[in-house]
Amino acid sequence: MALALLATIVFLFTLMEFVPGDPALVVLGEGATEENIAAIHKELGLDDPYLVRLGRYLGDLLQGDMGTSYKTRQPIAPAFFSRLPLSMIIAFWGVLVGTILGVLAGIISAVKQYSIFDRVLTVISLFGASAPSFWLAMMFVLIFSVKLGWLPATGSYSFKHWILPVVTIGLQCSASITRMTRSSMLEVIRQDYIRTARAKGQTEIRVIISHALRNAFIPILTQIGSNINGYLGGTVLVESVFAIPGIGNYVLDGVKTMDTPVVLSGIVFICLMCSFVTFFIDMAYAFIDPRIKATYGFGVKKKKKAAVATAKTTEGGEG
């Protein structure tokens, strides 16, 4: 994870070197003189070699310094972390709503395969997966804010302001989870141990939840992690449509004004969050599937401990 993050930072820093434009003009404006431009270059260290600037950026990043904005000349970290909760709220609740709806819809589609429920849910999931997030957001604003007047179109001041952004993300998130849950459940519910569980007289709900869903949950969990990673950085368009002052809007403003430190720090932080999410998803596999524990040696250790305890017991009995 650390190596992947380091490679991402180096790649992004190198990529920003090819962005056209002079940061000094962002600070001073188009009418700046050559002397003022040279002074800004010296102040920001823009004339230093590439490796020197990369090393300085990595050193500052390790100390928690995200740099200084070219536009506002203020540290990036305070402005960044003040906007972070808004983006996290949208991403968390959107993925949570999408996961609940997607898993339920996928289970119904698998259990009622080729029924009217399966066909309707499949159409809805295909629509949610195909429609762009900004188009969905604008359609929701047009219908529920402009036409019906039920919900506010922009801002983040109350619970009502969060409904449309969360529903927009939740609908797209549920679409992919519905399709993954359906395909995974269809593979599991035809297995012999499912028929055995039903033959033992267990209720259908217990068979579906305890036996089928648990064994089909590994690919579903992978899809959930992928959605979390996607919407941590993919709230840019949603925040722009609903005018929510989160990380996405902050990075987008940095792109418009060529504020390289803001863009770089925002993307690096999002990559860091995605790395941790992927790490915890991988760790969660072992708690769902015991076979993964055995693969990583947990089962071997238990067997060794059991063998040692048995040997001691046997020796004690012989003595």
CATH class membership of the largest domain: Mainly Alpha
Instruction: Report on the biggest sheet.
Output: none
Give the radius of gyration. Answer: 26 Å
Residue share in β-strands: under 5%
**Quaternary structure classification:** single chain
Which outline best applies? elongated
Low-confidence stretches: none
Please state the second-level CATH architecture of the largest domain. Orthogonal Bundle
Question: Level of helix content?
Answer: over 70%
**CATH H-level homologous superfamily name of the largest domain:** MetI-like
Please give the alpha-carbon distance between the first and last residues.
52 Å
Along the chain, the helix and strand elements come as: HHHHHHHHHHHHHHHH
Number of structural units classed as domains = 2
CATH topology of the largest domain: MetI-like fold
Chain-averaged pLDDT: 78
Tell me how many strands there are.
0
Helix/strand/pairing category: mainly alpha
The number of helices is 16
Can you summarize this structure?
The radius of gyration is 26 Å and the shape is elongated. The chain is mainly alpha-helical and 319 residues long.
Structure in words:
By secondary structure, this protein is an all-alpha fold. The protein has two domains: 2-62, no CATH class; 76-291, MetI-like (MetI-like fold), CATH 1.10.3720.10. Helix 7 packs parallel to helix 12 (235-242). The model has no long low-confidence stretch (mean pLDDT 78). Helix content is 79%, strand content 0%. The chain is built from 16 helices and no strands. The chain has helices at residues 2-16, 23-28, 34-44, 50-62, 76-111, 116-130, 133-147, 159-188, 192-199, 204-215, 217-233, 235-242, 247-256, 260-288, 290-295, 298-318.
